[in-house]
Amino acid sequence: MIGGIILILAGGGVYLAAKFGLPLGHLSGDIHIENGNFTFYFPLASSILISVVLTIVLNVILRLWRK
Question: Domain containing 46: what range?
Fold first, then answer.
């Protein structure tokens, strides 16, 4: 249940980022292939960016929590 809540919050965050003009999902390292009825999309650069930001945020929170 916690995983579902986290996914909902992450989806809402990406939605809000798009509303404020942040280019998540449209960075230069994201892979997008269209061929007829087939579409493949893999947000590689966006995933790496989100991972780095969340790692930094969680490390700061954990360091503050331990004090």
Answer: 23-67
